[in-house]
Amino acid sequence: MSLNSGKHTVKEVNEVRCTIVEKGCTKERIDFLTDLLNFNGFEVQVEEDKRKTEEDPITFTLGVTDVIFNHVIWVYQRKLKTTEGLKVTPDYWNQKATKMEPNYWDRKLKD
Q1: Residue 36 — very low, low, confident or very high, per pLDDT cuts 50/70/90?
Q2: 108 lies in a domain?
Q3: How remote is the C-alpha of 57 from its chain's centroid?
Q4: What is the pTM of this model?
């Protein structure tokens, strides 16, 4: 689930009730989000998605055990922090930028 959807989904991941943060993620994306969310004090659950055929890529579902967590709200309210202590921006969350630009809405400041 991207930051474009504010939908709050609660499902069981590894038999633990979780808020779903993202579905259909690659291993690299799961590693990034797991590190970020664990650093911010959330317990993360990851489950491999079922594949229809053997040729389909391996994807994962990531959830956090805090059932009231909404990643969209936390990112836009600047509640999440990086390991460097900087506030997470939407571009950082989406892995579009490594530089933290405080004014995420100002496109003229982007690379």
Answers
A1: very high
A2: no
A3: 19
A4: 0.84
